[in-house]
Amino acid sequence: MIRINNKVDPTNAQSQNQHGDDTIEAMSSLEVETASEPHPSQSWDKNEKRTSSEGEAVPLRDEKLLSSYDYELPKELIAQTPLSKRDSSRMLVVDAPTHHTHSLFSDLPQRLHPGDLLVLNNTRVIPARLYGHKSTGAPVEVLLLEEQPNNCWLALVKPGRRLPPGAKIVFTPRTEQQQSPATTPCTDGGNPPIPPLSAKVIARDEATSGRILHFDIPDGMSWESLLNEYGQIPLPPYITDSQSTPQQYQTVYAQTPGAIAAPTAGLHFTKQLLEECQQREINQAYITLHVGVGTFRPVEVEDITTHKMHAEWLQVPQSTVEAIRKTKQAGGRVIAVGTTAVRALEGAAASGTLQPYCGKTQLFIYPGYRWRVVEGLITNFHLPRSSLLMLVSAMVGRERLLNLYQEAIAQQYRFYSFGDAMLILPEARLSHIYSNRQGG
Description:
The chain is an alpha+beta fold and 440 residues long. Helices cover 18% and strands 23% of the residues. The chain has two domains: 3-125 and 243-433, 3-Layer(aba) Sandwich (QueA-like); 129-230, Beta Barrel (Thrombin, subunit H), CATH 2.40.10.240. It contains ten helices and 19 strands. The chain has a nine-stranded mixed β-sheet.
C-alpha cells in the first residue's frame, strides 16, 4: 500500500482487490508458472537463516521484512505528466557512502567517467489496453499480458467473472473510443473503414485469474496494424490525470515491441544527451526486457525472502556481453539504466558468469544480494513495499535509501513513472556485498 498522509491511496498499483477482475487496474496478483533459471539463492548471503539449528524461529532482520519498506508520500508528489524536456528532470546523485547532492539529469555526462558503459533497455511499450463489449452490449476492458501461439494472448479482462470460456468480445477502435456519444462517424469518403476485431475466450488461466483470448484476425491484416487501431498505451494506475502523449511514455531508443509498461529510468534521456555521452566516451549497450506485471506485482508476504517474482522475458545479446567485458577490463564501470536492465544483466549472470541469454527470469534482488555485473544505477523513485524498492536497497542499504527518499520528499522531487531520477554511483554502493569486478 502507498500511504499518503496516513491514508491508503485507492489509485495505487498495489491496492489489491480480492477478485481477479480488478487486477486489470492493479496489475498485481499475477503468478505465471514457468521454468525458472538457476536459483538465484546462490548469489545471496548463505548465512541468512529463518530457523535455528534446533528448529526455533529466528527473528528476521529489518531488511527482510515487508513492513520495513513503507514510507509516506504526499499525493501531490506523484507526477501525472512528464516534463516537456526529458532531461530537465531533477537527479539526486548518491556519490559516496554518506554523501549525496542535487543535480539535473542533463548533467549526467559530467557525473560519469570516460570509459563507463550505460546499459539501456530498448523494449517498446505496446498499446496493450483494449476496450470492447459483449454480445449483450456490456462493456469489457482487456489488458494484454503475453502473446501465445495461433493468434492467442494471455490477458486480464474486466469483468472477468462474466466472461467464461466461449464468450465473445467485440472491440471498439481507438478513434471511436475518443468520440462523444453524440458523434457520428464520417462515412463520406474519408479514411477507409477500420476492419473489425473480435476475440473469443477459450480458457481461464488459473495462475493469473486471466483469460486466454483467441483473436479473429481479418484476412490481409496484420496483428500489429490492428493493435495500433484498437489499443491504447496502458499508463500505470497511479497516473489518473495526465496530459501526456503516448510517445512520452516511450524511451527515445525504444525498439523492440513487447512491454506493457515503460522502463521509466530511460524516459529522461534525449537523443542529444546520448550523443553527448558518446562524445565524452561514455559508451552505450542495450538489452531487452519486456516489462510486465512482474515489475508491478506487490510483495504480499511479510518475509520478503519467500516472495515469488513473476517471470519476464529478456534478451542480453553477445554484443552487450562483449561491451561489458571490455569495459571492466579497461577499468570502466557498468551503469544500469533502470531496474529492468539490472534484472536482465544479473539474470543473465545467474550461472556465475555473464553470458548471452534469451528467455525468462524470475530473479528477485533484495538486500544481501551479491552483485555480479552492475556497479551503478540510474533509477526513478519507486512505490513503497515494492520489489523495485528492495532491489535498490540491495545496492545502497534499506535505511539509507529510505533516508534519501525522505530527502527527496522534503525537496519536492516528483515520484514514480513520470517523476525525477536518482543516480547511484559505484563509489556509493555497499562495497561489502559486491563480489568483484572481474569476469562479468
